Amino acid sequence: MKPGLRAGQSTEIEITVTQEMLAAFGGKVVHELYSTSALVQHMEQVARKLIVPYLDKHEEGMGSYVEVSHLMLTIPGMKVRLKATVSDVRDNKIIAVVEAYNPRGRIARGVVTQAIVEKAWLEKKMKELSLIHQLAQESESAARS
What we know:
Elements: E1 10-16, E2 22-25, E3 28-34, H1 36-51, E4 59-70, E5 79-90, E6 93-102, E7 105-118, H2 119-144
Antiparallel strand pairs: 1-5, 2-3, 4-7, 5-6, 6-7
């Protein structure tokens, strides 16, 4: 990782809640509110924005831990501002405190931890997993025959 990333550094993003971000299960909207799953995606997005300028070409960041408290309702059309602040840089882990606000106030707070890994290591692990998946599918297919 390139030098310079330190505790206290922060960045922000702003999104507008859309229909695709509403609470839905099985493709059916259960209520017309910003979903926790969309919130978590945006928390990871703003935390990633912190690390991207510091990644070397051979590195990648991976989410390894998310903790979130979704505190307030947000309806479609409302803007949400998310702010991530580095709280700690430990070995290959970057820990960020993330807060989210709509025009009425804070709607969420949490922590996102990202692990910085070698791209080559990640590609190897993905190939291994793909092979294991392929073998499992072949085994299931043979068992059904």
